[in-house]
Specification:
Layout lengths: L4 E3 L2 H14 L11 E3 H4 L3 H12 L35 E3 L15 H20 L6 H26 L24 H18 L13 H20 L9 H4 L9 H19 L12 H13 L8 E5 L12 H5 L14 E3 L1 H4 L49 H6 E2 L4 E2 L2 E2 L5 E3 L5 E3 L4 E4 L2 E4 L25 E2 L20 E5 H15 L4 H14 L10 H11 L6 H7 L3 H4 L6 E8 L4 E8 L20 H4 L8
Parallel strand pairs: 9-15
Antiparallel strand pairs: 1-2, 3-5, 4-14, 6-13, 7-8, 9-10, 11-12, 15-16
Helix pairs in contact: 1-3, 4-5, 5-6, 5-7, 6-7, 7-9, 7-14, 7-17, 9-14, 14-15, 14-16
Length: about 625
């Protein structure tokens, strides 16, 4: 293929023809008609945007469509039952699915997808090298886009597979021997990601994109911050589990702990450049009260375009249908606001997460929900008639004083969503003292009928019943990202909420963690970043810079943004936290003797123990029998 020619995918061919038609009345004279010169394509901003859009859709951004089965899973029948990364950590569980084990295809095929994307990136680079008439500034930015996509792609490969084959130029299909490229070491692969981020930052535009939809220097630095923190953690915590085998012996997985220092240093440098640039800040950092803080935080994820001062990179969803929209509104809405969609309520926030949130009167530590007068919070054996339970007129009252972000992230019992009171109840105590919990029953008391799940018909409540798999079984509903105006429809990929890939608080928290783990950087600046995030959540008390505080804040601030899974992977904590673990629920119960509510801390109903197998820290390399590549350990 000539370097200045590029084959155009049919999906964008007609768009490009229309663009050229607007610029050249003789566009039909271009021959052959299945290709177009790079100089002609990149002569207009429309042509650039059309081509980049095709590539940007392939960047391995883990957005609403990141599922156990695929990276960008939004086909015409995206029937994954809500198996998003949310339900594979201690932050959530599925209404029906309890497993954390990867399915046969979960991310395994990113090897194939990643190298397919890498091939397209290398072809893009060939075209840029052959440009002769395009403005040098445009050409420079296009080259930066190549480096950014390449860095992002190899970051996605490295965090799944460790050391991978670095192929930085187009291969000759006639050179059979040259097509077989051995794996680089994990350290070499991460070094390549860092160097490619640096190249991207050097060539990309130096000012943030106004709409935050294109890579710039600052996006490249944000990627470097995320990737270098991952690499540093893998090196530092490598000895938490002992891998063995040929891949370990040859350094294809694992790095010496001494390597952590250079990656923490690179993370710190990237973060400091972003922080000190003055380009980014927190959205509405000075709320008048916790209620305002709740709405500020919630609205930012419903429409990220109102918070572009905080957004570093946005993935826009402007169209509906296969390959375009997403399904989080359908899967995530509670049963009572399901609209025409038959399978709501699939994301169930856990009590484990709720217990992690601070209260305003006890800053700097997690405050578990207290349900009994003795204050014991480690008993999950269910209702005990011999214990003295705290009583509440309204189920919401037990959560008073909790961090504002909790109410923006989850739906608590009896709270309102879309002008509907969301009924989440798991049972009642009869006037004779008998507890009826998790059984679909009713009783008449003083001429009024009461129901264990809070209402007479499944359409009128959202918790604990097994009806259709549509009810929360943790006591909490999902709220973050949901549209307050969208009514779920019968069909796939109708949600168009934009996804924030990089935002400023992640950079601040990356920086704080890197400073603490390395002993380098500016601890004063790191503490300021930690506490300004909390200030936006209406906290008025500063907390000290400790690793416990930073990791808790990271879990709370970035919850459901698909960071928790990788945080547990990179810090090698998954197998420690998930060793025959059962996630937890909070069950509201109406005491018909007092007509007040009590709460029971419980294991999640119908959920068994789950264990993370350390082998899963790395994915298996597919096709090693043909490629001759060395397989990852223990596969």
């Amino acid at each position: 293929m000539k370097k200045n020619n590029i084959y155009i995918r049919y999906s964008i061919w007609m768009l490009i023809l229309l663009v050229l038609a607007s610029c050249n009345d003789n566009f039909l004279d271009v021959k052959p008609t299945d290709k177009i010169t790079g100089d002609a394509l990149f002569a207009s901003q429309e042509g650039i945007d059309a081509y980049l859009a095709n590539l940007y859709r392939q960047i391995p951004i883990e957005d609403f469509n990141a599922t156990p089965e695929a990276m960008n899973y939004n086909p015409g029948d995206a029937n994954n039952a809500g198996r998003y990364p949310i339900i594979f950590t201690d932050n959530g569980i599925g209404s029906e699915n309890s497993s954390i084990s990867p399915s046969g295809a979960w991310d395994y095929n990113y090897w194939e997808n990643g190298y397919r994307f890498n091939k397209e990136i290398n072809l893009f680079k060939d075209v840029i090298d052959g440009l002769t008439t395009v403005d040098e500034n445009v050409k420079r930015n296009l080259l930066g886009q190549v480096y950014f996509m390449r860095a992002y792609n190899y970051y996605a490969l490295a965090k799944r597979y460790g050391g991978v084959s670095i192929i930085s130029k187009s291969q000759d299909i006639n050179d059979i021997e040259g097509l077989y490229v051995p794996r680089n070491t994990e350290e070499e692969t991460w070094d390549y990601v860092m160097a490619t981020c640096d190249s991207a930052a050097m060539f990309l535009d130096q000012e943030p994109d106004p709409g935050r939809r294109k890579a710039t220097k600052w996006v490249a630095l944000a990627l470097k911050s995320r990737a270098s923190l991952h690499a540093a953690s893998v090196a530092k915590f490598w000895d938490k589990y002992e891998f063995t085998g040929e891949a370990v012996d040859k350094g294809l997985v694992g790095m010496p702990q001494s390597a952590a220092d250079k990656y923490y240093t690179q993370c710190i440098q990237a973060c400091e450049e972003i922080i000190k640039s003055g380009h980014f800040s927190l959205f509405k950092v000075n709320p008048a009260n916790p209620d305002e803080a709740t709405e500020n935080y919630r609205s930012m994820f419903e429409d990220p375009n109102i918070a572009l001062n905080e957004v570093i990179l946005l993935k826009g969803f402007n169209e509906i249908g296969a390959g375009y929209g997403s399904n989080q509104d359908n899967w995530g809405n509670p049963n009572q606001t399901r609209g025409a969609w038959p399978h709501p309520g699939r994301f169930n926030p856990t009590l484990d997460l709720i217990d992690t949130y601070e209260t305003y009167d006890k800053p700097g530590r997690s405050v578990p929900v207290v349900t009994t007068k003795d204050g014991v919070t480690e008993d999950y054996s269910g209702y005990n008639a011999n214990r003295e339970y705290l009583v509440f007129d309204d189920p919401q009252d037990i959560f008073k004083g909790k961090d504002a972000r909790m109410f923006a992230t989850v739906i608590v019992p009896n709270s309102f969503w879309k002008d509907t009171k969301i009924i989440i109840q798991g049972g009642y105590i009869q006037p004779d003292g008998k507890a009826v919990i998790m059984a679909d029953e009713s009783i008449e008391v003083n001429g009024k009928t009461y129901y264990t799940f809070g209402a007479s018909d499944p359409a009128l409540y959202s918790g604990f019943s097994t009806f259709g798999g549509n009810m929360t079984r943790t006591g909490f509903g999902f709220k973050k990202f949901l549209s307050s105006s969208y009514i779920p429809r019968l069909g796939w990929n109708f949600s168009t909420t934009d996804w924030i890939d990089f935002r400023y608080p992640e950079v601040l928290l990356d920086y704080a963690e890197a400073v603490l783990e390395s002993g380098k950087g500016d601890p004063v600046l790191a503490a300021e970043g930690l506490n300004i995030i909390r200030k936006r959540a209406a906290h008025n008390t500063n907390i000290p810079l400790t690793i416990e505080n930073v990791l808790r804040e990271r879990r709370i601030e970035l919850v459901y943004e698909n960071k928790r899974y990788w945080d547990l992977i990179r810090r090698r904590e998954y197998h420690e936290l998930f060793n025959q673990r059962v996630r937890k629920a909070l069950i509201p119960v109406l005491d018909l003797r007092t007509m007040k509510y009590i709460f029971v801390r419980s294991d999640v109903p119908r959920a068994g123990q789950v264990t993370f197998v350390p082998t899963w820290y790395y994915k298996p390399i597919p096709g090693v029998g043909t490629s001759g590549l060395i397989q990852n350990p223990h596969y």
